[in-house]
Amino acid sequence: MSKIATLEIDGNKYEFPIIKGTENELGIDIKALRGATGGVTTIDPGYKNTGSCESAITFLDGEKGILRYRGYSIEELAEKADFLEVAYLLIFGELPTAAQLEKFDKDIKEESHVDEDMKKILDGFPKSAHPMGVLSSLTSALIAFNPGSVDVDSEEEMYGAIVKILAKFPVLAAWTMRKRKSLPLDYGDNSLGYVENLHKMMFARPNQAYEANKIVNDALDKLLILHADHEQNCSTSTVRIVGSSHAGLFASLSAGISALWGPLHGGANQAVIEMLEAIKADGGDTAKYIAKAKDKNDPFRLMGFGHRVYKNFDPRAKIIKKSAEEVLGDLGIEDPVLDIAKGLADVALKDEYFVQRKLYPNVDFYSGIIYRALGIPTEMFTVMFALGRLPGWIAQWREMRLRKEPIGRPRQIYIGENYRAFKAVSER
Ligand code: ACO
User: Fold this and answer.
1) Tens digit of pLDDT for each residue in 385-416?
2) Residue located nearest, by CA, to atom 31 of ligand 1
C-alpha cells in the first residue's frame, strides 16, 4: 500500500502522506493542501469523507457493526461493566482499579449538590419548556456558579472539573423533569449508586419511600453505557469544535446538548415514539407508513431507521433490542405502541427499499421503547441520551485539549454574488 496520495490539478502533481490508524484505517493528510496548491480547498458538506482529528477513544466500523471504547467491545462492556467504570475508561483511557473506582465514585458524590440559586434559574422557565433546552441552559448557568477556567495541563484541575460535571449533570437532568411534573426538586441519596440515584432523583415522590427496582436500574445502566460515546458524531464534533476555541468544558457541553437535541441526532428517540403514537392514532396501519417512507415526494422518514455510519447493523440496537424484550417481559408491559414498533421493524427489515439502502433500526428505535416502558416521559428521552453521552463528550474534549488541537475553522467555496457597488436605498 502506497504511503503517498497524488493529486493532479491542471497538470501539476501534489503529494500528500497517507496516515494509518491502529485498525488500519487510512486517511489522506491534507494539512498542507491549501499552502501547496495556492488555496485549493476540499468540499465535503456533512463531513461524510472528512476526518476532523486523530482519536484514541472510540473505534467503530460501520460495515462490520463494530463499536469499541478504548479497545473494549460494546457487547462486553454492556454485559460486564457499570456506567461509572465505562465513564472512567472513556475519559482516562483505562478501566479503573477497585481503588480508583471507589475514589471516582466518592469524589463524584462529594460534588453532587447544585447551588440552591440554580433553582431560581430553573424557576424562570415555563413548565412547557423542552427539557433539552432547559438542560443546555442550566449547564451553561453552572459556569456562573463555578467560575474560573480549568488549566487543562493540570491533571488535578481537569479531574476536579470532570467529577463536578459528572456529579451535577444528573441533578440538573432530573430537575428538568421534576419541574415539568410539578414535583419538588430532589437531591437524591449519596448512599445509592450513580444510576440508581439518578432514577431516584427523577421519580422519588415526596410522600412515599423510594423503592429501587433492579430490572429498571440494570436497563438504565446498559442504556447509558450504549450511548456513552460514538466518536465524531454531530454533538461530539460540536463539543470539540466549541472547546477548540478554548471555551470552557461546561460551555462546550452545553453546545453539545443543543446539537444532540435535533431529530436527526439524539432527538430521534423522541421522534420514534411520536411517530408510533401518530401511526396508532391513524388506525395502526404500518403498511401505509412504510409506503410513505418510501415515497420520494413525501418528506416522511421512518424515525429510528438508518444511520450515517452503520450500514450493516447498529451493534447497540442489537443489545438494546434484547434488553427491551427482557424489560417488557419482566415488567409485564403490554403497550399497543410497542406492537406497532415491532410490526414496523418486521416489515421494514424485509422490504427491498430498506434492505437495498441498508436501513436498519438504530439504537434510538429501541431506546425509546425501553424509556417508555420505564415510565420516562417522551420529552425526557433525549435528556437520557445526554446523560449517557456525557463521559464521551468529556473524554473527547479532554483529548482535544491535551493534543493541543488548533481552533476548528472549516473553509468554504463561495457561491454568492461577485463584487457589486453599493446602492443607496433610494436607488434600489
Ligand atoms: N426512512 C426512509 N428513507 C430513509 C431513511 C428513513 N429513516 N433514512 C435514509 N433513507 C433513505 C434516503 O431517502 C436515501 O434514499 P435515496 O438514496 O433513494 O435518496 C437513502 O436512504 C440514504 O439516506 P441519507 O439521508 O443519504 O443517509 P444519511 O447517512 O445522510 O442519513 C440518517 C442518516 C440522518 C440517520 C437518516 O437515515 C435518517 O434521517 N434517519 C431517521 C432519523 C434517525 O433515526 N436518526 C437517528 C440516527 S442515530 C443517532 O443519532 C444516535
Assistant:
1) 999 999 999 999 999 999 999 999 999 999 99
2) 308
363 Cβ below 6 A of ligand 1: yes
**Alpha helices for 311-373 (secondary structure H):** 315-331, 336-350, 352-356, 363-373
Boundaries of every domain in the chain: 4-51, 73-229+249-259+380-403, 267-374
Q: In this structure, are residues 357 and 306 in contact, taking their beta carbons and an 8 Å threshold?
A: yes
pLDDT band at 162 (very low <50, low <70, confident <90, very high): very high
pTM of the model: 0.91
Q: Which of 359, 365, 371, 382 to mutate to test the pocket of ligand 1 (most atoms within 8 A of CB)?
A: 359
Report whether residue 311 contacts ligand 1, using a CB cutoff of 6 Å.
no
Work out the pLDDT band at 213, boundaries 50, 70, 90: confident
CATH number of 267-374: 1.10.230.10
Instruction: State the distance from the centre of ligand 1 to the C-alpha of 291, rounded, in angstroms.
Output: 15
The side-by-side arrangement of strands in the sheet containing 12-20 is 4-9, 12-20, 26-28
- Judge: domain 73-229+249-259+380-403, CATH 1.10.580.10: yes
